Amino acid sequence: MSQPGGGDGESSPPGSQTRSLTQESLLEELLKEQKTLGTPVALFSEEYDSKPVRDRFSHLIPLSKPTRGEQYAFEVHLDECTGCKACVAACHSLNGLDEGESWRDMGLLVGTRKQPYLQTVTTACHHCVEPACADGCPVLAYDKNPVTGIVRHLDDQCIGCSYCILKCPYDVPKFNFKRGIVRKCDMCQGRLAEGEAPACVQACPNEAIQIKIIRHDLVQESGSIIPGAFDSKYTRPTTTYISSKPVPVAAKAADSGRIELDHGHTPLSWMLVLTQMSAGTFIGCAIAMWLNALTLQQAAITSAVALLIGLVGIQLSVLHLGQPLKAWRAFMGWRKSWLSREILAFGALPGGGAAIAAAWWFDNMEWMRLAVTGTAVAALAAVFCSVMVYVDTRRPFWSLSMTSGKFFGTMLLLGGCVCAAVWIFFGVAAVYWAMGIKVVLRWILSLWEISRYRLALEDETTPWHKSALVIRKHLSHHIELRGLSLVMTGLVIPVAIAGGAPAHWMLIVSLLMTSASQLVERLYFFTAAAGSKMPGN
């Protein structure tokens, strides 16, 4: 039976067709409207492109160049920094950095239980008034622009020696293994020159990073620009950190307690041991000649051994460079770089060797004495430059007393070992003096190093306490190995020689073991250096 007013099927409710048509029309209208809408990125791009170049982020950068006594500098507003790392990503992307390379980092400051504090910190190159990286570079690969004050790294000049990394107390220059050179932030100077803000400034969503003009006479000259940073009097960094809430004095970097190994420089470890051995041998030979304890032939052979050892050490140092074919440039920074001075001083060894060879050829003992003495003085000066290369980095573990004690001690110790090992084959009477001096120096140097290490380990106020902790945690087996070597070379071998053991071979074994012990010390001389850095680097 059919329903009233309908057919055989169910009838549609009144107005349903009208509603259906209305919904379809609304959907079509919405779809049409959606096609005209832009994404947030598109809208930002349209607004960005519609403005003149100088209006883009113009409130975040100076609109005029610095005048005399001024320069550009980063200004970081800590209250606005959330640690999102947009600045890090933008710097990496817009500067075309390689994988794993970073010119801007993000760190974290924390307080104590009594003074709770938590603050993220963005950091990059501080474009210091007196940049240590530029002062230490042996090839003048750094340039501080006289107008903008920006410290720029000249990639084509760099030989990849990494000395600027050791010199910078903020861990700013980074070694690029792919290119074999060091690279760093240049404040996007090309963008600034065109009225554009640097990548990090543009990317920060909270505008926490700005570029300001700062006067040199107002740059902080003491204290730290932020807790955990190195003392500003060394390089006078220009970055300023601003916060409405005072940063607690006890605040420190969240990663300050990390005990980890620093980068090891194995070729440099070999170079230091061998060149100091060479210098000590020349000195021992010169002293013996002035005491008339050596003949012309014996002096020539001893000097030849010393020269060969020194040249091998110098050649091994080239393996440390990322760009070894450019090593010839290393003398260019001699006016201010101790590394250049060290290279020039060791460069005198071949000349000294030629003078010694000439004296031997003409069979002139007086010439030989003067040539050996002159070469010994040059080698001694080179070792002093080696000391200053590391002292000048201001790292506590490389203090003047520590480094000079280690380097000059190694020089005299290994020099005595080589002289004894060579002279024993010629029956030189002075060999017994060399043996005695070697044993005494071995004990004095070892006991001095052990006492300093234990003191630094127990006393938290000692400047290189952290280095001692690194040695205890990661390198304790090195200490044990050196202790075994001390017993063998300072006690067992001398007793064996006194008991009638063949002195010729015993002295050679002693030389090899002592050299190995000093090489082990040089390896942790680098890995336990515990250099300073900014929070988070």
UniProtKB/TrEMBL annotation:
Localization per record: Cell envelope
Keyword vocabulary terms for this entry: 4Fe-4S, Iron, Iron-sulfur, Membrane, Metal-binding, Repeat, Transmembrane, Transmembrane helix
GO biological process, one term: anaerobic electron transport chain
Domain 4Fe-4S ferredoxin-type: 72-102, 149-178
Organism superkingdom: Bacteria
Keyword Translocase on entry: no
GO molecular-function terms, A-Z: 4 iron, 4 sulfur cluster binding; metal ion binding
Low complexity composition-biased segments: 10-23
Identification of the protein by name: Molybdopterin oxidoreductase
Native organism: Brevifollis gellanilyticus
Biological classification of the source: Bacteria, Pseudomonadati, Verrucomicrobiota, Verrucomicrobiia, Verrucomicrobiales
